[in-house]
UniProtKB/TrEMBL annotation:
PROSITE patterns: BZIP, BZIP_BASIC. It comes from the Eukaryota. It is found in: Nucleus. Keywords: Activator, DNA-binding, Nucleus, Phytochrome signaling pathway, Transcription, Transcription regulation, Ubl conjugation. This is Transcription factor HY5. GO terms for cellular component: nucleus.
Amino acid sequence: MVIKGGATIAGCGAVRLLRNRVSAQQARERKKAYLGDLEVKVKDLEKKNSELEERHSTLQNENQMLRQILKNTTVSRRGPSEGQ
């Protein structure tokens, strides 16, 4: 059977099938690129999280040390008998 433009029905099906295959391949490539980008972002965020956890730990230790220094300084300025 011939349709408008001289193409056959079978020919139109083949063209549509080919376009569909190309479109599907492009979609797979986009998905692969997207997943690659996500993997890079995950690694970057994991690294940043690790750095922030380390910084948090350092600041906690520093804070504890400064509190102890402040406590010792306050006690020594008042004198042992004044605090009672």
